[in-house]
Specification:
By secondary structure, the protein is mostly helical. The chain has 2 domains: about 70 residues; about 90 residues. The chain is about 80% helix and about 0% strand. The chain is built from 6 helices and no strands. Helix 5 packs antiparallel against helix 6. The radius of gyration is 20 Å and the shape is elongated. About 25% of the residues are buried.
Length: about 160
């Protein structure tokens, strides 16, 4: 269970991109091999692709793989680096919480359904709220790690 919790974004993104690839492959085989397509596969592949992108964004954020201001922070004196990271993380926390709030509002206003499958846009747009909330939680972890570094290991920054 811990594995699923620790790798939730990666698991969900992998499932979503696998379904996307499978649906597109099936549609290509049907189109060129048999002369017809299943219309719902296009819709499902787009939905799964959207989900894989947002879970991928959250996963990269969790592992600190996004571009950042590390180059600028490296120019700071050693003692100022950790406080600078905390300040940047606080800004990112506020930004992720704002985006989470706005995506929640957007999700709650989703009352349409997709034309072929009939899936509610609430489900499709839910990934926005979920991914920004996960990124906010990861940011809290980043802040805690930096505060702990300042509190318990001051010799690292000196």
């Amino acid at each position: 269970m811990r594995y699923i919790f620790d790798n939730f974004e990666e698991i969900m993104a992998s499932i979503a991109i696998s379904v996307t690839v499978l649906m597109v492959t099936i549609n290509v085989i049907l189109r060129y091999g048999f002369g017809f397509v299943l219309p719902w596969t296009e819709e499902l592949s787009v939905i799964c692709f959207i989900w894989s992108v947002y879970f991928g964004i959250s996963s990269c954020y969790k592992h600190k793989l996004h571009m950042g201001v590390d180059v600028v922070i490296q120019l700071f004196p050693l003692k100022a680096r950790t406080p600078s990271r905390i300040l940047i993380s606080c800004f990112l926390l506020a930004l992720n919480l704002l985006m989470s709030y706005l995506s929640y509002d957007y999700m709650m206003l989703s009352n349409k359904v997709t034309p072929v499958i009939g899936m509610s846009y609430f489900t499709i747009n839910g990934v926005l709220f979920l991914s920004f909330t996960l990124m906010a939680l990861h940011t809290l972890r980043f802040i805690k790690e930096d505060v702990d570094q300042l509190r318990y290991k001051p010799s690292i920054d000196t």
